[in-house]
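Work Package 3 (structural annotation) set out to generate three-dimensional models for the target panel prioritized at the project kickoff. During this period the team completed the workflow that converts sequence records into discrete structure tokens, so that structures can be stored uniformly alongside our sequence database. As a representative example, we reproduce one entry of 61 residues exactly as it appears in the project archive.
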Amino acid sequence: MFFDDLGTGMPTILQILGWRFFFYANEANEPPHVHARKAEKECKYWLDREGYDLEEAFLIR
């Protein structure tokens, strides 16, 4: 796990195609999620363990 170079302490969990995925440790009032940022763009991905289906994500034919 890496921390950002801005010194804010937000752990980076993945970097891919210019997107940096990270989380804030102090968002206790929100359901589990990760943030993603690339340049001036930012979004949030909610982690829904019950709605996740491995077969749907990785369909083998």
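The radius of gyration is 14 Å.
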